[in-house]
Design brief:
The structure holds 2 protein chains of 2 kinds. Chain A is an alpha+beta fold. Chain A is built from 10 helices and 10 strands. Chain A is about 20% helix and about 15% strand. The longest helix of chain A has 12 residues, at about 190-205. Chain A starts with a helix and ends in an 8-residue tail after the last strand. Chain B has a single domain (about 65-135, about 140-395), classed as Up-down Bundle (Formate dehydrogenase/DMSO reductase fold). The chains are: A alpha+beta, B mainly alpha.
């Protein structure tokens, strides 16, 4: 800790804004999710629990709002009249629920990062929103300022809680991930352990990761291939091509789909007007049928 | 009606005030015992929460902030009236503040100490709280200077240390009186040590005045900044119902408001507990009440501005939060806040209530209840109706752990305050003497010139 370090290093860690900032190179991890393909099966959520050692908190704690699902499937029932705030008259409309997989959006100008008093959550050069568990003091300001409410706090010491992982299940825990103790914040990391392992393995070959070499757990298990993850800078990657096809820009706060009616585009990001610049693009659902 | 009886002998002032330092009455022990009982409730709750995890407070995702933060703001707010009375009114030469500013200042210090505890209680990892301080460490890590919470920590520490200094400096001449009048014992040693060899020479008085004035000038911007920064915790965020530009002045007004209400409460309690009727006169109470009324109206105005700007602005989420406050699960508390904060103070506009002690005691407690509700209504409703629809159907109610700690904090404050009043003179002797002296001289002057005295200015 020195004054020089205080004066010099801050811009390196604080990417305030994707516009006019140092461009990400060679990686910018991003995702696209096709809501038309999503069937709401929850396999992604289950895979996330397995991959990231998420505690299974049980019925009671779940009901109390203490669950730890980094990846959650939200259900929305279509309303009869979109201008009305009244709920739909039909309880289960023919069209079925609309599903939205929601996880940390890895915002480029993340509202959670600036407010953390200890700097436990920061932006990495490859465009991830990192969370340093050891540094977290648990002020929960990040969650209070998160527009998507995708941050999950360890309300109890889950690793020592009974039945969070029954005896035989501890064999299944991922050794690449730490267990989080009580009082720290956690959230989706885009399976950063896989990214880092992948980077290390290609380092000796002196090249960068190719598309598909790193997959997130949720992407891997999605039966309909609704989730695409990859390097947005790599023009060969599927995620890059999808973003391009939908004309979704990382640095824009309004996408083409919303600018012109009948453009045929489906790509958007959630709560874009807040200018958090999320790294997850959603493609809106257009199919009429339930399945 | 005169602020103070101009015939009080200086020796009597000494005697009356020093009496409050001597063997306590039964009532004093009762108050102390109740306060300690309240603290033990809070300590019990905190030990339980520390061991089990924050989950026992019934906070959840996404309701990550609750009563702890609300009560933290409440106590910070309480601290402002001390500075208002002692520093701002000192600069404005309003001498009616003299008999009551000492305890108001003590209130400032102790409510800041109470507020600090809530920051700790709120933290998920209390044992790592020092990460948020810029302490030397070999990892080269600094806290995040962009975070309003860090500004908060710094503003509170600065304000706390400055207000302790101000309280102490202002007390030096009185500590010397205590030193000269006390029997031998630990107290005499304490006063001797604290009065820094005060003898009341001209040079000492001159230096004392300059020091006191300097700290007063230093303290005023600090007081304004500390609550503006607390407001920034919300105003700097992005959440609907929080990112309100008018929050800093609104918070400062609210702070002065709850502080003045607390002064009225403590005024009445001290007046009876220590028999200070002659110094804490009804005329001074009346002035404090009028001040409180004025601040209450400012607060009401700023509140109305906030509602209007949300209502006529085109930010639908903020508007939804406002509607949800008035009609949703928090509606009884929100309307309670409007009633206690804006309707009840209208009582204070009537002359006959301005000196009616039972009415004022109840009113001042209601005002503070309203101000506590205000803080809760700032913090909580945003979580149950934020931007994201997923948060909308989650209801949350604070558990007994949260209520217990909030309840106990009042005991902690009372304990600190009561101990202070027994150890240090809670009425400023030398300033009351000054006041009596100046008042009587002014009266004599008027009489000499053939005019009739018109009471206090």
């Amino acid at each position: 800790m020195s004054v020089t370090n205080l004066l010099e290093n801050w811009s390196e860690f604080r990417h305030a804004h994707p516009v006019g900032d140092v461009p990400h190179d060679p990686y910018k991890w991003a995702m696209s999710i096709d809501l038309d393909a999503c069937t709401g099966c929850n396999a992604c959520s289950v895979a996330c629990y397995a991959e990231n050692n998420l505690p299974v908190v049980g019925k009671e704690k779940y009901a109390a709002g203490h669950s730890m699902h980094w990846m959650r499937i939200e259900r929305y029932w279509p309303v009869d009249d979109t201008t009305s705030l009244e709920p739909a008259t039909r309880e289960f409309p023919d069209q079925g629920a609309q599903f939205l997989p929601m996880m940390c959006q890895q915002c480029e100008a993340a509202p959670c990062e600036t407010v953390c008093p200890v700097g436990a959550t920061n932006h990495t050069p490859d465009g991830l929103n990192s969370q340093a568990y050891n540094r977290c003091v648990g002020s929960r300001y990040c969650s209070a300022n998160c527009p998507f409410k995708v941050r999950y706090f360890n309300w109890y010491d889950y690793p020592t809680t009974e039945n969070v992982w029954p005896a035989e299940m501890t064999q299944q825990l991922n050794p690449d991930i730490t267990l989080r103790s009580k009082g720290v914040m956690e959230k989706c990391t885009f399976c950063v352990q896989r990214i880092r392992a992948g980077e290390r393995s290609v380092k000796n070959e002196g090249r960068v990761l190719k598309d598909g070499e790193v997959q997130t757990a949720c992407q891997q298990v999605c039966p309909t291939g609704a989730i695409t993850f990859g390097n947005l800078i790599d023009s060969e990657s599927k995620v890059h091509q999808q973003w391009k096809a939908q004309r979704v820009e990382l640095t824009a706060d309004e996408q083409e789909k919303d600018k012109e009616a009948d453009s045929g585009l489906r790509g958007y990001r959630i709560l874009e007007e807040l200018r958090a610049y999320p790294s997850v693009m959603y493609m809106e659902r257009v199919r009429e049928s339930a399945i | 009606m005169k602020d103070i009886n101009e015939d009080i002998a200086w020796a009597k002032i000494n005697k009356d005030v020093l009496k409050s330092l001597e063997s306590p009455r039964k009532l004093y022990w009762v108050i102390l015992a109740v306060a300690i009982a309240m603290i033990s409730v809070a300590v019990g709750c905190e030990v339980y929460q520390y061991n089990m995890g924050m989950g026992v407070s019934n906070l959840n995702n996404p309701h990550v902030w609750g009563l702890y933060i609300a009560t933290f703001i409440f106590w910070i707010g309480m601290s402002h009236s001390g500075t208002l009375l002692s520093a701002i009114l000192h600069l404005m030469h309003a001498d009616w503040r003299k008999p009551i500013y000492r305890f108001a200042e003590a209130m400032t210090t102790f409510s800041l100490m109470t507020a600090g505890l809530f920051v700790m209680v709120h933290l998920g990892r209390l044992w790592q709280f020092y990460y948020s301080l810029p302490y030397p460490n070999d990892r080269g890590l600094w806290p995040n200077f962009q975070s309003p919470l860090l500004w908060d920590a710094m503003a509170i520490f600065t304000y706390l240390s400055s207000s302790i200094l101000f309280l102490f400096v202002g007390m030096i001449p009185d500590l010397a009186i205590c030193r000269d009048n006390m029997h031998d014992g630990w107290r005499k040693k304490l006063y001797t040590w604290l009065s820094l060899g005060w003898e009341g020479t001209d040079r000492q008085w001159r230096n004392f005045r300059i020091t006191y004035l300097t700290i007063a000038c230093f303290l005023i911007p600090l007081a304004v900044s500390v609550h503006s920064i607390v407001a920034s915790d919300f105003a700097m965020s992005q959440q609907p119902g929080w990112h309100v530009t008018s929050f800093p002045p609104y918070f400062v007004a609210g702070a002065l408001y709850s502080g003045c209400a607390a002064i009225i409460t403590l005024f009445i309690i001290l007046r009876y507990t220590f028999k200070f009727e002659e110094y804490m006169t009804l005329s001074i109470l009346k002035k404090t009440v009028r001040l409180t009324f004025a601040i209450a109206m400012i607060w009401t105005y700023l509140n109305a501005i906030e509602f209007a700007s949300v209502w006529y602005g085109h930010d639908q989420p903020s508007k939804d939060v406002l509607i949800q406050k008035a009609t949703g699960p928090y509606a009884p508390f929100w309307w309670g806040m409007i009633f206690c904060g804006s309707i009840v103070p209208l009582m204070l506009a009537f002359k006959r209530f301005q000196t009616n002690i039972p009415v004022l005691l109840v009113t001042s407690l209601l005002l503070n209840l309203g101000m506590w509700l205000e803080r809760w209504m700032i913090v909580a409703p945003t979580f149950s109706h934020g931007y994201y629809p997923w948060t909308w159907d989650h209801n949350q109610w604070p558990s007994w752990v949260q209520w217990g700690i909030v309840f106990g904090s009042f005991g902690w404050f009372t304990l600190l305050f009561m101990v202070f009043c027994k150890v240090f003179p809670s009425v400023s002797m030398y300033e009351v003497k000054e006041m009596v002296y100046h008042r009587s001289r002014a009266t004599k002057k008027l009489e000499a010139s053939g005019m009739q005295a018109k009471g206090a200015h």
